[in-house]
Amino acid sequence: MTNEDFLKDSDQENTLNDLLSFDLCKELNKEALLKEDFSVDDFLKEIYKFHTLEDLQIKLKELLNSIENDIFTLIYNEYNSFFKVTCDILENENKIVDLSVRLSKFKDEVQEIYKVIQQNVVSMDQELSKKKELYRKKAIATNLLNVNMMIEDMENLLYKDSEKFDDADTIVLQQAAKSYISLRYYSSLIPSQHPFIEKRKEKIKTVQNNFFNCLASALHKYRKDASQIENLLRVLQIYREIDASAEACHQLSKIK
């Protein structure tokens, strides 16, 4: 065998090995076509050594169909996703609109209730003010009646001449003391400028002075008589109850 024959056989063997190792399905795929450095000329030169153009055309058509199917599937899936998202957005938007309408309606109802409550509060305040004023007037009227009753009680109890007290008069003085205390209390509940008080100011002063004169007369009488120690103590107790202990001391200092 000559060297030329050997080289020829060697080239055929290498070509056969390359042909057996070349897989058109493997080389002709989407990944290969999507490479950044993909060159159509280089690719065709490489393919052309092992396959005919008819084989390449068939494979390219298959690949094209596969790509079209993938594109259709991708678009379909993306469209479905987009449509679903759109439907969700519209549904949520409708819910938001419905909620907004309900909130607006609820707000209007709350405002109406608030107005009614405010009107009721104002009405209640007015009624309460009227009732307070009526109660105040009734209280003043009641206190005025009580003041007048205490004046009359003291006048009726102290009609006797203060110089003619006996043992029973300490009981009268005790009753008069209660009326005096009540008179002071009810008078304190009435404004001093009230017309009723203004008209009876002199009368009140007169019965109070008469009461203190009767107390002083009894104190002097019982202080001078050693047998009247119990009545003396009763009179001193009356002074203490009407918060006039200083007046009692003053009267005692005048007794010789």
Automatic annotation (TrEMBL):
Where in or outside the cell it occurs: the entry states: Golgi apparatus membrane
The GO annotation for biological process reads: Golgi organization; intra-Golgi vesicle-mediated transport; protein transport
Where would one find the signal peptide in this protein?
Answer: none
Q: What is its main location?
A: Golgi
- Residue ranges of every copy of the Conserved oligomeric Golgi complex subunit 2 N-terminal domain listed in the record: 28-89
Q: Does the keyword Protein transport apply?
A: yes
Q: Mind listing the UniProt keywords for this protein, alphabetically?
A: Golgi apparatus, Membrane, Protein transport, Transport
What is the recorded membrane topology of this protein? Peripheral membrane protein
Question: Which Gene Ontology cellular component annotation is one that this UniProt entry carries?
Answer: Golgi membrane
User: What family is this?
Assistant: Belongs to the COG2 family.
Q: What is this protein called?
A: Conserved oligomeric Golgi complex subunit 2
Source organism of the structure: Pneumocystis wakefieldiae
User: Species lineage, top-down?
Assistant: Eukaryota, Fungi, Dikarya, Ascomycota, Taphrinomycotina
